[in-house]
């Protein structure tokens, strides 16, 4: 476990949060809250976990469901170009008719 991940985990534990664990998936740290629940059918405890989010070095915990701030691409997207090309094609005839009338 990396030093900054261990420091984050120790800080949270010192604040009173319990049952936190870090799992590395594709070399990225993910935070899980785990606890156990008694399963009556197997008569043994069963581990139950929830996923609060992913851990990053700069902002810390990124909550589940948020995509974070990603910069918008500086280039034209295919969708944007397709919409503009469609409008140009559709309005070319109309613009030519307007030029004749005027």
Description:
The protein has two helices and four strands, in the order αββββα. 2% of the residues are buried. The termini are far apart. It has 102 residues and is of the alpha+beta class. It has a domain at 3-65. Residues 41-74 are annotated as: Disordered.
**Beginning-to-end CA distance, first to last residue:** 74 Å
Helix content: 25-40%
**Which structural category do the helix and sheet elements fall into?**
alpha+beta
The strand order across the widest sheet is 1-2-3-4
What attributes characterize this protein structure?
2 helices, 102 residues, single chain, elongated, alpha+beta, 4 strands, 35% helix
Please write out the topology.
Blueprint: H1 3-14, E1 20-25, E2 28-39, E3 44-56, E4 60-63, H2 78-101
Antiparallel strand pairs: 1-2, 2-3, 3-4
Quick take:
The protein has 102 residues and is α+β, with helices and mostly antiparallel strands.
